[in-house]
Each structure stands twice: as structure tokens, then as C-alpha cells.
Amino acid sequence: QVQLVESGGGLVQAGGSLRLSCAASGRTFIGWFRQAPGTEREFVGSISWSTSITYYADSVKGRFTISRANAKNTVDLQMNSLKPEDTAVYYCAARAPQSPYSAADRRAYDYWGQGTQVTVSS
């Protein structure tokens, strides 16, 4: 059974850092997405549990880092140098096995966490 639970959101000033965690079970490829009010849910990054290969959206590359913690079965999203435009609800998602869609396409994912709010003040 696939279960995803995010934690770690909150309020931070611009330039600050936050670390989100996704407690994941049942799948080996996890993506992070975010959605600001009135916008489409957008890809942030992803990680393959088996290879640890990561992939990031251009908007967060160099600022965000995705890693896995095998002992805790979590996938973490470390967010540094946060900007007000990073404000959104952040979701982790599990990619469907053998999905034909790319990792950046939300259609590739069939299980989603409940989301956690990240607010960056200017």
C-alpha cells in the first residue's frame, strides 16, 4: 500500500531555509510538486530511490536539494535561499510503475500526499 505524509512546512523570511520531509512507503520514485493559489501544480524535483538520481526544475536548481533517508523511509526537500515566489502548498507524490510520462509531468504520479504550506515573506 502506498502512503505519503509530508511535514515541515511553515513561515520563513526571504533568504531563509526550510526542510520538508515525505514519509513514503510502497514506491521507489518520489516527486515533489507545489501549487500556489490560482496556478497549476508545478514540478519541483524528483528522486529515484534505487539510484538516488535527482532531477530539478530550473526555478529551484541550485537552491533546493532532494535526498533520501533510507533508515526513516523519508524523502527530504531542503530548500535554501527561499524567495517569496516559492510560497505554495508543497506535495510529494509517488510515480506510477512504468508510467509513460516524464518525471516532471504530474500525470506520472498516482498517489499524492496531503500537502504542506510553505510561506516565504519578503
List keywords for this structure.
single chain, about 120 residues, mainly beta, 4-stranded antiparallel β-sheet, about 0% helix, about 50% strand
Brief characterization of the structure:
By secondary structure, the protein is mainly β. The protein contains no helices and eleven strands. It starts with a strand and ends with a strand.
Outline the structure in words.
It is globular, with a radius of gyration of 13 Å. Helices cover 0% and strands 52% of the residues. It is built from no helices and eleven strands. Strands 2, 4, 5, 6, 9, 10 and 11 form a seven-stranded mixed beta sheet that branches. A four-stranded antiparallel beta sheet has the order 1-3-8-7, with no helix packed on it. It is mainly β and 122 residues long.
